[in-house]
Write a structure and sequence with these properties.
single chain, alpha/beta, Peroxisomal Thiolase, Chain A, domain 1, 2 domains, 13 helices, globular
Length: 411
């Protein structure tokens, strides 16, 4: 079996679009949530979102790209190219047939779908763009990344709602562990701050209707009332340890465990007793060969919805057992909002950085932790912490649970 390491990452997010800005935001507890600007959201009743600000489009793209790709593909390509630049890897330096892409999206080209349905309604079926399908289908972030970088190995797009990014990294880990690939770009991308995206989740009563950005995404808070829609992408370069060492790569961390299962309980609600998610955490720890007391930090799914946070708290306690208060827990969604299919990607990066720099990112803007949530939640300010292992949880609509376990790299 191969050991699997992380040698690069790229991020487009509400709290930074490069490695330094993202790390600084995590340490400082920066809030990326602001009033929605991408469209007039007045009719939806939702005021705030976590948009990507100051996106450096010109770094890798030209105007024609915006007409041929939905924004979720552009975010995904950007994060992948940033990850490759950090990793120092290219199609010319690897076996292209063993260089893969596993970048998923929870929804795909939602803005394209919305625009083209309106066009068909207003102007007739013959006026639908010939680019409608290749721009909107959820596999095209992965497909466009592979086209751009020359990756000819496995190319898949996992779609498991909010667990997508974590499943993608986990499956890439297994693929390399068992020897099928040398290098894989893995993560998630999403661009769902659109009229139909916000309206749909608002109708589910899943979104926070708070007007104050500082009281909108407040995971574990007694007054939490829904999640805040985010957007962006997070992508890792994962490769076999042997491959990384042969090319003299700078190793950032190691993927050591992955757990995946299903609640089989409800379309949108988690199992209230947390049993499903706890089993996924246990599976990740078992593959990593560690005990619960070795887990220093959990980046929780922590959406800021009443049902999710309570069930996940139970799941964490079940998975960790009696010593659960010795493990730090936080939700970076308090800063980034909920990026749906991309959440697991950027939260895996946050977890990696927590291990590399030995700190726990905070859950910001918490006034009072819900008394029903018995966890060691790090609130409002980041916390120094010595730790070797950390986990990142993602729980998606449909009952999908995904957990990855990372290990700090020490030469």
């Amino acid at each position: 079996m191969n050991r699997v390491v992380i040698t690069g990452y790229g991020v487009a997010s509400p709290i930074g679009n490069d490695s330094e800005a993202f790390l600084d935001s995590l340490k400082q507890g920066k809030n990326g949530i602001r009033p929605i600007t991408k469209f007039d959201a007045t009719d939806t009743g939702i005021i705030v979102g976590a948009e990507v600000h100051d996106f450096p489009f010109d770094k890798y793209f030209v105007k024609k790209d915006a007409k041929r790709m939905d924004l979720f593909s552009i975010y995904g390509i950007y994060a992948a190219l940033e990850a490759m630049e950090m990793s120092g890897i290219s199609a010319e330096t690897v076996n292209q047939d063993r260089f893969g892409v596993m970048v998923g999206s929870g929804i795909g080209g939602l803005q394209t779908i919305q625009d083209q349905v309106i066009r068909m309604h207003d102007k007739g079926a013959q006026r639908v763009s010939p680019m409608f399908v290749p721009m909107s289908i959820a596999n095209m972030a992965a497909g466009n990344i592979a086209l751009r970088v020359g990756a000819k190995g496995i190319c898949t797009a996992i779609v498991t709602a909010c667990a997508t990014g974590t499943h993608s990294i986990g499956e890439a880990f297994r693929n390399i562990k068992h020897g099928y690939s040398d290098v894989i770009l893995a993560g998630g991308s999403e661009a769902s701050i659109t009229g139909i995206g916000i309206s749909g989740f608002a109708s589910l009563t899943a979104l926070s209707r708070a007007e104050d950005p500082d009281r909108a995404s407040i995971p574990f808070d007694a007054e939490r009332n829904g999640f805040v829609m985010g957007e962006g992408a997070g992508v890792f370069v994962v490769e076999s340890l042997e491959h990384a060492q042969k090319r003299g790569a700078n190793i950032l961390g190691e993927v050591v465990g992955y757990g995946a299962n299903c609640d089989a309980y409800h379309m949108t609600s988690p199992t209230p007793d947390g049993s499903g998610a706890s089993k996924a955490m246990i599976l990740a720890m078992e593959e990593a060969g560690i005990t619960p007391d070795q887990v220093g930090y959990i980046n929780a799914h922590g959406t800021s919805t009443p049902a999710n946070d309570k069930a996940e708290a139970k799941a964490i306690r079940l998975a960790l057992g009696e010593g659960f208060m010795n493990t730090y827990v936080s939700s970076t969604k308090s800063m980034t909002g909920h990026l749906l299919g991309a959440a697991g990607g950027i939260e895996a990066i946050a977890t990696l950085l927590a291990l590399k720099h030995q700190f726990v990112p905070p859950t910001i803007n918490v006034k009072e932790v819900d008394p029903e949530i018995e966890l060691n939640v790090v609130i409002n300010e980041s916390k120094p912490a010595e730790m070797t292992y950390a986990m990142s949880n993602s729980l998606g609509f449909g009952g999908h649970n995904a957990v990855i376990c990372l290990k700090r790299w020490e030469d």
